Structures are given as C-alpha cells and as structure tokens.
Input
Amino acid sequence: MTPKVRQKKILIVDDDASIREILATQMGRLHYDTATASDGEEAVARFRTEKPDLILMDVMMPRMDGLTACQKIRALEKHGLRTPILFLTARDTQHDKLSSALSGGDDFVTKPISLQELREHVEAALSHTKKK
Output
C-alpha cells in the first residue's frame, strides 16, 4: 500500500466572494487543497489554524488590508519556516509592488490572471519553499 501524499494547501484571501470561488475552483483543478478568508483579520486567524503551504492575498480589503495581514503572518512564522505569499491585485503601480515586497510578500501578480500564469507563479513559489 502506498502512503497518501498530502495535497498542498493554499489559503485564498479576497473580499470578493466570486473571486475566492473562482480561485478555489482553479486551484482545485490543479489538485491543491484550499481554504478561504474574506479579509486580512480572517487570513491571520486561518493562517494559524490551517497552516497553508502558500497564500494568495488581495491587497485592498476591509478591516485589515493584505499588506498588514502579511506583516502579521510573517511575525507568527517560526524561525526558518516561511510560507510564500503571492499578492493578487488589480493595482499595478511601482509603489504597490514595493509596498508588497516591504510587507513580506514573495510575488506580485496583477488581476486578471490566466490559469496558466497563476499555475506558474504558484508552482514557482512552492518549489522555493522550505519544508515544513
């Protein structure tokens, strides 16, 4: 009997329910397990309980934006373990890109994004992750 391989878990964070649903469906097609959050506060709480392998995070959200959530998640990580955080946003200025990097983000992708492009970003981020 071969051991069951654990699917990588992706936490999808966006205040738009339809975007969360679309991304969860797309990630499911790529054989990833998913969890969702509707804002930064919920993302930080879900990070603690879900232990995702990667986070797809919107920047602009109510209650707590993605940049602040990213900083809080980085503060919770144990030494040597870093969960890749990919910002998915409609904003595309140099200031936005710099802010995402300074908050601890690993990648910055502009919406809309094709499934193939998203897959490439996700696979690249996961391939550079230290094992948990």
Remarks:
- The first strand starts at residue 9 and ends at 13.
- The chain has five helices and five strands.
- Residues 17-29 form the longest helix (13 residues).
